[in-house]
Here is the input.
Amino acid sequence: MLNEPVINLLTEAISALIEINPDIEEAILNSIETPPSLEFGERSSNIAFKLAKPLRKSPVVIAEDVSDNINKILSIDGGISRTEATKGYINFFFDFSIVFDKIYSQITTEDENYGKNNSGNSRKIVIEHTSINPVKPIHIGNLRNSILGDIVARLYQWNGWEVEVHNLIDDFGRQVATLIWGLLEGLQLNVIRGSNEKYDVWLGRLYSYCNSILEENDSWNKVDKVIVDIRKNPVIYQFMRNISQACVESNLETAWRHGITYDYLVWESDISRSGIWEETLQLLEKSELFFWEEEGSNAGCFVANLGKLPEFQDKKNPFKIFVRSNGVPTYVAHDVALQMWKFGLVKASLKNRCLFKQINESKNTRDLWSSTDYKIPVLKSPMIGNADRICNVIGVEQAFLQDIVKYSLKLLGLEEQFQNSFHLSYKHVSAPAVRFSGRTGNWYEERAWADAVFEDTYNTAFTAISVKRPDLDQNITKKQEITTNVTIGAVRYWLARFSTETEIKFRIEDATSLEGDTGPFLMYAYVRALKILDKIDLSSVKEKFRIENKSISEQEKRLILEFFIFPEVIKSAASSFQPIQITKYAFDLASWFNKFYETSRVISADNLDIQGFRVNVVKAFLIVMHNVLQVLGIPIIDEM
RNA sequence: GGAUCCGUGGCUCAGCAUGGAUAGAGCGUCUGCCUUCGGAGCAGAAUGUCGUGGGUUCAAAUCCCUCCGGAUCCGCCA
Here is the structure.
């Protein structure tokens, strides 16, 4: 919206110097940027540098020519008051009295939809996240996964996609079998559950204990037997399923308190028995790139020949085993089948039931469905799967396997699905001494569970609020409500504000921080803005005011510019799967509001025209900030 | 051995995709702003060979190569 008049003017002015072709059009489009400082205007173009070679003139001269041409054809209607050539750059200066008018009417008209677009065109994306083994509580590393996935889900909704969030429960894996082995052996008698201990926390301790016993006696083969029993013995299966279900429900409590919700729980055992692997195998067998190996070390295995793809040519071993010689498919084969199922390429005969009504931080309810082993489905379920796009949120250590999943689709000639398979990969959360690994059990680092981080942050926030709001001592319910919301905001923001390629170093004082580049900083800016409108007598505020560009301060201009770019940030963050872009934006927006707050008095403004203008700036800010917080899943509160 | 990612003030991180104006934040330190539209804030100061060495370019934190340091992956494990 801000760029369009700039592009039009540039194109017209440049056409006087050189013939416009699509390449130049694109170069003009890409040349627009935000200058480092407002002394260089509000928008600038470095197109003169790009034209230096074809025109065989210096960028400085070109910039001056273009700028002169623009000033000849300039009319104020587009909001641009003048241009200036500086050191080869062409800088555009806006008249904010005009520009703000436009953005204000757009923001107030669209209100809580400001920033949304329909580029998804109702296509469907399935986002899988969390997906932890149901034997332990959620730790801070899992929480990073969940929050990244949750924000990406919100982003896709804002981009007009239908979103379905899956959480895969691996109840057929080695970890569950280990736990079940321990329970069948009666090891729970040695790990007594505390009276207030959360169920998944206790299971986690028990699971850890099981591992240590197996390690001591080097008796891992006992787990192999349980793996078979779980599959073959209905009584043991049901026992396992009940334990897993209880663990998942305990995990869900943790997720919900952090504002994370799901649409569908996919149970690995249901998936395994639904026939999707067999169906997938039939499809794979039709391709000559997947075959049953008859000789060599892989004899008797069903393998994929990845060496046909340039991406895998330098691999030492281009053959990836999908089915072992004993007939059991590998993990990656399951993942390929699962991916095919999510795309609707194979039809699983799954039965579903509605488990819970989830309530998120905006008090909206959302049904949580689950696959089930019940003989008869409880209710008719909504359409599951049939995705146009898939995003799997999985740690970077699984990048190779996710590549195999994706490229298997390519080998099958499923180019469309190949292009729409995304792996949102992120690095681990680490402590100075230990890396939290769910596998080995050393995740059991004190205070690194999601619930513990929540509690620690809660306590820090509670102390802070006790100091800042002594008046709330009389209203403990309100105080707890605010503390809870501040905690959710702090933890969410902290886990989302790092690039996914950065390994987060877990330090409790960073995680629980409430000042500076944090969630509460954003929430506080919003509260401050609300308080202005609360306090001012709106009936005396001028709705039609006259203001000149020169009486609009730099802080006001910067804040208004932030309003403009929000819709672009929503698009960019979704297409790059980088929630950090939203946290950065939210922080900038709040920062500029705070600077505005310090320098531009609203209630005691110099005159009623300026006051009317500033009231509208505050109103626009509230809408944009509200929407950013919504995308981040940070609670929107009116006092703190 | 092969592959991928990371290395930016004392600490924790943005920026790199698509090369452009004085390399940005937050924390910590120091100085100011409590006659507060709510100080979880604001203004200012100090702190940088953007790991090293080369290359490409009018221009490199950003692209290419070398080396150093760190992480991860390359199972008939899941």
User: Anything to note?
Assistant: Chain A has 22 helices and 16 strands. Confidence is low (pLDDT under 50) at residues 433-444 of chain A. Residues 259 and 363 of chain A are 10 Å apart (CA to CA).
